[in-house]
Amino acid sequence: MTNRVFSGAQPSGNMHLGNYLGAFRNWVRLQDSYECIYCVVDMHAITVWQDPAALKDQVREAAAAYLASGVDPKKSILFNQSRVPGHAELAWIFNCVARIGWLNRMTQFKDKAGKNRENASTGLFVYPNLMAADILLYKATHVPVGEDQKQHLELTRDIAQKFNNDYGIELFPLTEPIIQAEGARIMSLRDGTKKMSKSDPSEFSRINLNDDADTLAQKIRKAKTDAELLPPKADMLEGRPEAQNLVGIYAALTDMSRDAVCAQYEGKGFGDFKKALTEVVVTNLAPITEEMARLQKDPAYIDSLLKEGGEKAQALSAPILADVKKAVGF
Ligand code: ADP
Ligand code: NA
């Protein structure tokens, strides 16, 4: 079987450093060893309200972030989900395969729906079935994911297995996660126990990929920390989640180990460390920010790339969806 990767991010605005370190940067590295499909998942985005007048631009912003991070449309398929109707068709079939009990166990739904569960969209509840459809519509064998998506990928395997069993056909692979060591979980700058997220209402919680150098410096200066010094080893940061997070971001961006970062700044306070971190963040993000801005000035170009990618995705998925429909009896 071809080693094929599928991954995506939601076009809900505010593409951030967690998306870059937990996803995009990793995607770029996979392009030479896998057949890669990178999707802007606009159908996932509308599980919570999106302003229709803004959504197309948010799709372009996400595509620009992929491209600026190094996703190469000559090597990988890049498109937005709603162009390929097979995602919705397969998701419906999976709605009929997955069990309510399985979805009830998904922690992300509990987090996102919050206390007002009765008022969450049914789409938000069955979101993991659509994610399984995204992956299995192409028989993807591998999915690079941040820690936050591990549980959803396990559900994808459960759905593949149950479909194969119920219909007596070895149609879907059991997709494997690819989780890289550094950057798998970047936390909020305001609260080291919450992940950095597009949907966090606090602008200072998040490093956006389109922040300029001054904004980056200000956000890092204001990031929550403690008054203690940097220890010689990373395991001595236990119980200091904000400090751990900043050291982790430095390590991820420089490809150093957390231990090496601690060793370099041992005995320094966070005033000094934040200055060094700002330099590392600005140096790494500036070319991405610039390239995103350049691309976003030409929406017609981005749209043409997405259209081309959508046609490739359609062609790749059509025979797989035909086999699924045949197995189901359609
Ligand atoms: P968000 O949670 O910000 O809405 P998405 O759900 O669109 O982001 O996720 C897109 C990709 O970015 C996924 O692979 C996800 O695992 C990764 N990701 C999102 N937030 C983080 C984070 N804080 N740290 C590491 N990876 C992240
Ligand atoms: Na997410």
Short description:
Belongs to the class-I aminoacyl-tRNA synthetase family. By secondary structure, the chain is mainly alpha-helical.
Number of domains: 2
Q: Helical segment tally?
A: 13
Number of strands: 5
Helix/strand order: EHEHHEHHHHEHEHHHHH
What share of the residues lie within helices?
40-55%
The distinct bound ligands, ions and cofactors come out as:
adenosine-5'-diphosphate, sodium ion
Overall geometric form: globular
Identify the strand order in the major beta sheet. Answer: 1-2-3
* Low-pLDDT segments, ≥5 res: none
Give the CATH level 1 class of the largest domain. Alpha Beta
Counting helices, strands and paired strands, the structural category is mainly alpha
Annotated CATH architecture of the largest domain: 3-Layer(aba) Sandwich
State mean pLDDT (0 to 100 scale). Answer: 95
Distance between the termini: 26 Å
CATH H-level homologous superfamily name of the largest domain: HUPs
Tell me the strand percentage band.
5-15%
Determine the CATH topology of the largest domain.
Answer: Rossmann fold
User: Compute the gyration radius: what is it?
Assistant: 20 Å
What distinguishing features does this structure have?
330 residues; mainly alpha; Rossmann fold; Tyrosyl-Transfer RNA Synthetase; three-stranded parallel sheet; two-stranded parallel sheet; binds adenosine-5'-diphosphate; binds sodium ion; Tryptophan--tRNA ligase; Trp-tRNA-ligase_bac-type; Trp-tRNA_synthetase; ligase; tryptophan-tRNA ligase activity
